[in-house]
Design brief:
The protein is of the alpha+beta class. Among the domains are: about 120 residues, Beta-Lactamase (2-Layer Sandwich); about 100 residues; about 130 residues, Heat Shock Protein 90 (2-Layer Sandwich), CATH 3.30.565. It is about 50% helix and about 20% strand. It has 19 helices and 18 strands. Strands 1, 2, 3, 4, 5 and 6 form a 6-stranded antiparallel beta sheet that branches. Strand 1 and strand 2 form a beta hairpin. Helix 2 runs antiparallel to helix 10 and helix 15 runs antiparallel to helix 16.
Length: about 600
Amino acid sequence: MKKTLMFRTLESRIYMIFTLMIFAAVFVMQLVSFRFTMNTVRNSTLANNRILLGQLVKQIDSYIAGMEQISMAVQDDLQLITFLQNGGDSSSTVYRSIQQRLGNYIEARNDISDIIIVGQAGGIIPGNPDMDLNPWVNIADKEWYRSALEAGGATVVSSSYVQNIVAGRYSWVVSLSREIVSPLDGKSLGILLVDLKFNRIKDLCQSLVVGSKGYNFIIDPDRNYIFHPSQQLIYSELRMEPIDSIYSLLDNENESFYHENDRYFMIETSSLTGWHLISVTYESDIVTDWQYVQISYAFLGLILFLIVGLATNRISSGITRPIRKLQKIMQSVDTGEFQLVGAIKATEEIRELAREYDTMVGHIRKLMDENIKEQELKRKSDLKALQAQINPHFLYNTLDSIIWMGEMGQNREVVLMTSALSKLFRISISRGRELINISDEIAHVESYLTIQKMRYKDKFEYEIDIDPDLYKSSILKITLQPLVENAIYHGIKEVDHKGLIRITGEEFGEKIKLEVVDNGKGMTEEELENLNTMLSSTPGSSGLFRQGTGVLNVHERIQLYFGNKYGLSYFPSSGGGIRIMIIIPRAELEK
């Protein structure tokens, strides 16, 4: 339980990695789904709002068109035209008849505030006989009056304003005005004014809104406000609308709305009046009950996370079960039992590792049996050669590294180190031969360096520069590896800087000269002199300072096979380490 909590095992790490990945996937899925749902609802609401805005434009256009029909009916009244042409008297029966018809229009439509006819001679026919004109107002100065004269008989729709031509009345209205023209000579007979009550436009704008906060407002082509629910605040500049940004939508067909803070603005233009109708929708009105949606998503995500978490636990346990079995069997190497794995239910990589391990253990057993049967004449050299081939400490550390990398899920590194270890032992065995090609010896030491380089986390680099013409020449197997091993353990490990091991080889007359050079700790001149003296002494010498028995074994085997004029020599390296020179005769390997 403690290891699982500390994530020190492969199973716990797989479980944790999968759990984090699943959590991230569920979280991202929920976030994307939530955003998708929110955007879908928002876009749907805004699309519906645009439909409502289009309906509002049609209703206002229909309303204005209806008022325009009334104004045209008044204008086409022949009795009115005759009365205006003749400059009729306000006390006449015709005057009262005309006034009666105007009053009927007002009474028939509760959205008409007033209908007034202003004659060219200055006479006025009001629709309401009780209406008194404001003596302080000059009608000719009014905007609706001047606009009607300039329109040449077309209907002019004004912006909203306070009408003050009636004494004691100040009403918010929208005016329709048009010039009354004589059908006989085309002369101007006067101006017709129809004041529309502001509340009708207000009711239309407020009837088609989205949410409790949404609203509509209208501006004319000159950016004057026709209607706004906060009209007084707008005129007093206590409230502002982003008119410039809203107007930019008219020039950009790709943008259907403008978003500012928590508000969405959409604009439509009336083809009849030229008014711009703007709909405002609040984010809070679009996004309602999202807290409940979020809780639902979170609950579903938690259930999914728990289900997949249980499945992940079973999967991680199934993956690591054969690895734990393999690890337990490999630990038998430490006790000298060398158990075999045999058939194992696992992935192809683990089965391959088990097969290579069984092959390695089989070779080790075979070598150990052969070691017992070796002849007395080769007892010292062969026994030490086997010792150099089989270094239990190196093997244990390598297998331990393989297990550790397996627990970390570094399958590629496991395969690489296992392959290098297998190749190392395969070349070490060499079917019982002591002499091998230099190319095989290079492959052997490269496998060893690959393993050590992975174990020491790039503590050092290595270079091998041996003349290819020497590859088919013979050499005692495991000549270079013990020297490289000593360069690592007694040279490079002792320094803080990054190490470098360089292996070179060239023809030297009828001989071959190989060198192993490192930039490690090095040795004093006295130590080098004593070491070379011991190498030149009789076989069986011991006490090679830090260099160990492997170097002595290589030196003695070379002299045993090739003679006393061959062997090892130690020299200081220019890089601060040691340079070991190996001299062997050049000869092709017998097939």
